[in-house]
Design goal:
heterodimer, A: mainly alpha, MetI-like fold, disordered N terminus, B: alpha/beta, 6-stranded mixed sheet
């Protein structure tokens, strides 16, 4: 399925390229290598198992490479696009809400996004489906509303925890406000913001499974088909593939987090 | 106020009232800051000294009044461009943790559009200036440096674009006393070459006396209680506030105004290997001292030998009193010297050059002579300023 094996060499290089390679570096190196190997093995086992099954015609219609790859692509599009939108919206909003003039609005906006996350995800999806319409676009809107909070909160926290004396030093040296934001505040907030993005990404991969109920496709279709037609094998494959995808994306995100964290911290 | 050469910085009726506050933090402050001197703003916490400094580079905009740099009114120029012309050092240093030492120092030159080669050369030059090897430290990150090294980099960064003015807000405030002392001495040595105009904020009167060419003692609202040289502030405080702020022992503090290099060093009998008992005994008998100072092959002080040590049966390598720690460099103050002298084994302090080679000693007599001179000068000045009103107890030492 996804990426087993291939990224191993680069992944091993990562901890060595960094300053302190101690025990932590070794553990991280193992994690870089072992996770994809493990995920690859599980994927392989799933494939071997499905191949060994005697599939009836209904199962064959779902459990074939064409159908699965279409659903995989739909799923990735749902989760990927909604995450990109979330990052764009939440990071800009977070920057805005930490500027001196507008930071008073932060609590109100946070309360609003809290509501977005407090509503159960399937409720939000169906609610939007019923009121606005069904299909890909509305599913993406629902996913965005549901996962904007972690990124927004982490952006605000990440920017707020930047040492005030660094900002003072930057301003005192003649950096403009924009330069202080770009060159000091954002780079130093990157680890916290990335953690929020990773959370949002995982939420989106999971929640995208529910998009099947508003006709937006994804792996949810497999599970839903299996449920409606009473085929346990199909349900199982759909669920397993969703889990594998989520874990793979989480692994990619964790590597990205390590690579993008500014050096010297 | 228009006499003499143009001041580097002129503050005119500078006032700052923070929103929501009744009393101004800075209240109609006017002062001239001459070129090439270290001016200390010192006062109790909350007197407005830091605010005053930030008004100069307009990190805080004044409510009223104007600031002139070299005659140019900078109250209305672009503040970001203004700050690139003024070096700024703060107590927390504020090195950017995600940038290397070289990148930290290069921030202002790059903003000014210097080309890469010039920036690189300047970074190396500055690291050399503050006594850090460019090859070793250029590519390191701030967290890999000690507090003292970070402070050095902070100073180097402030001087990166060679600004004529440096603003320093308690720059040595967060550093342990021993390192602070060393950094202060290093900084004074640097300043002797660079002759920058420096506005230096501290709440520590001892630091003010040590570092300042002139000291402005500030009261609430940045009102100047006295603006004068350290000598005159110590010997003739303008009012009760200044007297209280200086605290006890003003005369003893006066010793921090004199460097070891300013006094005549005394001689001490010295010996170098190979040590011969007979020669040592003779040398000691000819001098009026109770011990000899042994130097190593590079003339660095090793230990003191008394007659008892020389007469002892074993090897001369195993006897004697260590020369450490009563050793100072010429830029140490007489205050430092006296401090070490009191705990020294022989009642003297050894003076070495920067390479550690012996130059002479300072004795209690040396210091007493100097104290006498200061006292006599103060008496002279008092007689001239206010005839017939010498408060004798102020001058007693």
């Amino acid at each position: 399925m996804a990426v087993p094996g291939a990224p191993t060499p680069t992944a091993v290089d990562v901890p060595q390229a960094r300053a302190g390679v101690g025990r932590g570096g070794v553990v991280r190196g193992l994690r870089y290598v072992l996770t994809p190997i493990l995920l690859g093995l599980v994927g392989l086992a799933l494939y071997v198992w499905v191949s060994s099954l005697e599939l009836d015609s209904i199962e064959q219609r779902t459990l074939n490479a064409d159908f699965i790859s279409t659903k995989l692509w739909e799923h990735i599009k749902l989760a990927g696009l909604s995450t990109v939108l979330v990052v764009t919206i939440a990071v800009s909003l977070g920057i805005l809400l930490t500027r001196p003039g507008t930071q008073r609005l932060a609590p109100a906006v946070m309360a609003l996004t809290n509501i977005g996350q407090a509503i159960p995800s399937i409720g939000l999806l169906v609610l939007l489906g019923v009121t606005l319409g069904i299909g890909f676009t509305y599913a993406v809107i629902a996913l965005v509303a549901y996962s904007v909070l972690p990124v927004l909160r982490n952006t605000i926290v990440g920017l707020q925890q930047v040492d005030r004396s660094l900002i003072e030093a930057g301003r005192g040296m003649g950096m403009t406000k924009g330069a202080v934001l770009r060159r000091i505040e954002l780079p130093l907030a990157v680890p916290v913001i990335l953690a929020g993005i990773r959370t949002a990404l995982i939420i989106n991969v999971g929640t995208a499974t529910l998009a099947t109920f508003t006709g937006a496709g994804g792996f949810g279709d497999l599970i839903n088909n299996g449920l409606r037609l009473g085929r346990d094998n199909v349900i199982f494959v759909g669920a397993a593939l969703t889990a594998l995808l989520a874990l793979t994306i989480d692994w990619i995100a964790s590597v990205a987090e390590d690579l993008l964290r500014p050096k010297g911290l | 106020m228009t006499d003499a050469p143009q001041p580097m910085i002129r503050l005119e009726g500078l006032t700052k009232v923070f929103p929501g506050q009744q009393t101004p933090a800075v209240d109609h402050l006017s002062m001239d800051i001459p070129e090439g001197e270290i001016i200390i703003l010192v006062g109790p916490s909350g007197c407005g000294k830091s605010t005053t400094m930030r008004l100069i580079n307009r990190l805080i905009e004044p409510t009223e009044g104007r600031v002139f740099l070299q005659g140019e009114d900078v109250t209305t120029v672009n503040p970001d461009a203004l700050r690139r012309r003024i070096g700024y050092v703060i107590q927390q240093i504020g090195l950017f943790p995600h940038m290397t030492i070289a990148d930290n120092i290069a921030v202002v030159p790059r903003m000014l559009g210097w080309d890469r080669r010039r920036v690189r050369a300047r970074v190396d030059e500055l690291l050399e200036t503050v006594g850090m090897d460019p090859g070793t430290y250029r590519g390191r990150y701030p967290k890999e440096l000690s507090g003292g090294q970070r402070q050095r980099v902070g100073v180097a960064r402030a001087m990166a674009a060679d600004p004529p003015i440096l603003l320093m807000d308690e720059p040595f405030g967060a550093i342990d006393p021993i390192t602070r002392d060393r950094l202060q001495n290093e900084f004074l040595r640097l300043q002797a070459d660079l002759r920058k105009t420096i506005v230096f904020v501290t709440h520590d009167i001892d630091e003010a006396i040590k570092m300042g060419d002139r000291i402005a003692i500030l009261q609430q609202g940045s009102k100047i209680a006295q603006y004068d040289t350290p000598e005159r502030i110590l010997t003739t405080p303008a009012n009760e506030f200044v007297e209280q702020f200086i605290g006890h022992g003003a005369s003893l503090k006066g010793l921090t105004l004199v460097r070891v290099s300013d006094v005549d060093l005394a001689e001490w009998p010295v010996a170098q290997a190979p040590l011969d008992r007979g020669a040592l005994r003779r040398q000691l008998a000819e001098s009026d001292k109770a011990s000899l100072l042994v130097l190593d092959e590079r003339r660095r002080p090793v230990k003191w030998l008394t007659l008892r040590d020389i007469e002892s049966p074993g090897s001369l390598d195993d006897v004697g009193l260590p020369a450490e720690p009563a050793i100072v460099e010429p830029n140490a103050t007489l205050h430092d010297a006296l401090d070490l002298m009191i705990t020294s084994y022989t009642g003297t302090v050894i003076v070495t050059d920067r390479g550690g080679a012996y130059q002479g000693v300072v004795e209690l007599d040396t210091i007493m002579r100097r104290v006498d001179e200061v006292r006599r000068a103060a008496v002279e000045r008092m007689r001239k300023d206010e005839p017939g009103s010498v408060p004798a107890e102020d001058l007693a030492l």
